[in-house]
Amino acid sequence: MSPEVFVELLKEAMLLVIVLVSAIIVPGLLIGLVVAVFQAATSINEQTMSFLPRLIVTLLVLSWGGNWFVQKFMDYTFNMVHKIPIVIG
Q1: Residue of 69, 50, 52 lying closest to 61 (CA atoms)
Q2: CA distances, 35 to each of 22, 24, 30, 51, 54 (Å)
Q3: Labelling 15: which of 5, 9, 54, 76 has CA 20 to 30 A away?
Q4: What transmembrane ranges does the database entry give (predicted)?
Protein backbone atom coordinates (compact mmCIF):
# COMPACT_ATOMS: atom_id res chain seq x y z
CA MET A 1 0.00 0.00 0.00
CA SER A 2 1.40 3.36 -0.98
CA PRO A 3 1.44 6.30 1.41
CA GLU A 4 -1.03 8.19 -0.79
CA VAL A 5 -3.65 5.45 -0.44
CA PHE A 6 -3.15 5.30 3.31
CA VAL A 7 -3.48 9.09 3.64
CA GLU A 8 -6.66 9.06 1.53
CA LEU A 9 -8.22 6.30 3.66
CA LEU A 10 -7.27 8.09 6.85
CA LYS A 11 -8.68 11.38 5.51
CA GLU A 12 -12.02 9.75 4.66
CA ALA A 13 -12.23 8.09 8.08
CA MET A 14 -11.42 11.28 9.96
CA LEU A 15 -13.91 13.30 7.91
CA LEU A 16 -16.65 10.78 8.65
CA VAL A 17 -15.86 10.88 12.37
CA ILE A 18 -15.90 14.68 12.40
CA VAL A 19 -19.22 14.86 10.55
CA LEU A 20 -20.98 12.27 12.69
CA VAL A 21 -19.68 13.54 16.02
CA SER A 22 -20.35 17.19 15.21
CA ALA A 23 -23.92 16.35 14.14
CA ILE A 24 -24.48 14.92 17.62
CA ILE A 25 -22.48 17.39 19.73
CA VAL A 26 -23.25 20.78 18.15
CA PRO A 27 -27.00 20.87 19.01
CA GLY A 28 -26.18 20.00 22.63
CA LEU A 29 -23.56 22.74 22.75
CA LEU A 30 -26.01 25.30 21.39
CA ILE A 31 -28.68 24.33 23.92
CA GLY A 32 -26.06 24.44 26.68
CA LEU A 33 -25.12 27.96 25.61
CA VAL A 34 -28.76 29.10 25.62
CA VAL A 35 -29.33 27.59 29.07
CA ALA A 36 -26.11 29.15 30.41
CA VAL A 37 -27.16 32.59 29.18
CA PHE A 38 -30.59 32.09 30.74
CA GLN A 39 -29.00 31.01 34.03
CA ALA A 40 -26.66 33.99 34.01
CA ALA A 41 -29.52 36.38 33.30
CA THR A 42 -31.74 34.99 36.06
CA SER A 43 -28.99 34.08 38.57
CA ILE A 44 -30.31 30.52 38.80
CA ASN A 45 -27.48 28.09 39.57
CA GLU A 46 -29.14 24.71 39.21
CA GLN A 47 -26.96 21.94 37.75
CA THR A 48 -29.85 19.83 36.45
CA MET A 49 -31.18 22.80 34.50
CA SER A 50 -28.01 22.70 32.41
CA PHE A 51 -27.68 18.93 32.09
CA LEU A 52 -31.22 17.80 31.34
CA PRO A 53 -31.89 19.94 28.20
CA ARG A 54 -28.54 18.88 26.70
CA LEU A 55 -29.33 15.24 27.39
CA ILE A 56 -32.78 15.51 25.84
CA VAL A 57 -31.48 17.32 22.74
CA THR A 58 -28.70 14.77 22.29
CA LEU A 59 -31.15 11.88 22.55
CA LEU A 60 -33.52 13.58 20.09
CA VAL A 61 -30.70 14.15 17.60
CA LEU A 62 -29.68 10.49 17.93
CA SER A 63 -33.23 9.29 17.40
CA TRP A 64 -34.05 11.64 14.50
CA GLY A 65 -30.69 11.39 12.78
CA GLY A 66 -29.96 7.74 13.52
CA ASN A 67 -30.99 6.59 10.07
CA TRP A 68 -28.71 9.16 8.45
CA PHE A 69 -25.81 8.22 10.76
CA VAL A 70 -26.16 4.54 9.91
CA GLN A 71 -26.46 5.29 6.19
CA LYS A 72 -23.26 7.37 6.20
CA PHE A 73 -21.41 4.65 8.10
CA MET A 74 -22.69 1.94 5.74
CA ASP A 75 -21.63 3.98 2.69
CA TYR A 76 -18.17 4.35 4.18
CA THR A 77 -17.98 0.63 4.98
CA PHE A 78 -19.06 -0.37 1.45
CA ASN A 79 -16.51 2.07 0.05
CA MET A 80 -13.78 0.46 2.17
CA VAL A 81 -14.79 -3.03 1.00
CA HIS A 82 -14.56 -1.89 -2.62
CA LYS A 83 -11.08 -0.45 -1.95
CA ILE A 84 -9.66 -3.74 -0.61
CA PRO A 85 -7.95 -4.58 -3.94
CA ILE A 86 -6.31 -1.14 -4.00
CA VAL A 87 -5.03 -1.55 -0.46
CA ILE A 88 -3.72 -5.07 -0.99
CA GLY A 89 -2.31 -4.55 -4.48
Answers
A1: 69
A2: 20, 18, 9, 9, 9
A3: 54
A4: 13-39, 51-70
